[in-house]
Write a structure and sequence with these properties.
Pfam families: dNK. The protein has 207 residues and is mainly alpha-helical. The chain is built from ten helices and five strands; from the N terminus they run E-H-E-H-H-H-E-H-H-E-H-H-E-H-H. It has a single domain, classed as P-loop containing nucleotide triphosphate hydrolases (Rossmann fold, 3-Layer(aba) Sandwich). Bound molecules: adenosine-5'-diphosphate and the ligand Cc1cn([C@H]2C[C@H](O)[C@@H](COP(=O)(O)O)O2)c(=O)[nH]c1=O.
């Protein structure tokens, strides 16, 4: 699984590996989060997180689960984020920042606990693209997704700190697989070089 802050370069990384034969790449279903039956839960959440946070996170949880249970069609599958990041990073951030009411967080948490207890979600390796929040802020502005124009640097800092506490400092939640950290503040050329250096570790993780 490839993890990292918003606009850290996850999709770019997965697009690079998707050129390799016998690898299936599952990018995040962001288009669904922007359009479910004509509504845009991602946009609504950024406009009014207290009202729409649960709506978005419930849908993210469902669509991530849907990805996790898809039968494998190749020996290797790379997936962008996971049901774990949705809960441990984004839902947690909404709750901790006082933007998700206690009852919403409790309902979402019970759903999440039920899922991970009853449905197998195997993960061999977490590839963590480690960036500074400032780098993500610049890449986010450059990508210019409409819904994300309201995101301040502080939001990316909170998401960054949650990732670091989870995957690096092991201070928050159980980590479901070994973590490969790839420093990702570099330009594209250096990033592609690092992906090549780590190719074997990434593609042989299931062995
Ligand atoms: N190493 C890099 N250097 C500069 N820009 C990058 C780099 N990697 C990705 N980008 C650009 O940053 C933006 C976010 O990248 P993307 O892969 O969509 O991130 P994510 O999937 O993590 O949100 C895109 O416009 C992309 O072209
Ligand atoms: C998993 C997850 C994502 N989001 C938001 C964060 C971003 O605005 C997009 C995903 O974009 P990225 O470029 O792939 O990082 O979705 C969220 O609000 N809640 C979540 O659980």
């Amino acid at each position: 699984m490839t993890k990292g802050n918003i606009a850290s370069g996850k999709t770019t990384c997965l697009e690079y590996f998707s050129k390799t034969s016998d690898i299936e790449v599952l990018t995040e279903p962001v288009s669904k989060w922007r359009n479910v039956q004509g509504c845009n839960p991602l946009g609504l959440m950024y406009q009014d997180p207290s009202r729409w946070g649960l709506t978005l996170q419930t849908y993210v949880q469902l669509t991530m689960l849907d990805r996790h249970v898809l039968p494998m069609s190749t020996p290797v599958r790379m997936m962008e984020r996971s049901i774990y990041s949705a809960k441990y990073i984004f839902a947690e951030n909404l709750y901790k920042s006082g933007k998700m009411p206690e009852v919403d967080f409790a309902v979402l948490s019970e759903w999440f606990e039920w899922i991970i207890k009853n449905i197998a979600i195997p993960v061999d390796l977490i590839v963590y693209l480690q960036t500074s929040p400032q780098t993500c802020y610049e890449r986010l502005k450059q990508r210019c997704r409409d819904e994300e124009k309201v995101i301040p640097l502080e939001y990316l800092e909170s998401i960054h700190n949650l990732y670091e506490d989870w995957l690096i400092h092991h201070k928050s939640f159980e980590v479901p697989a070994p973590v490969l950290v790839i420093p990702a503040d570099h330009d594209l050329k250096k990033m592609l070089h690092q992906y090549e250096e780590n190719r074997e570790k990434i593609l042989m993780a299931h062995c």
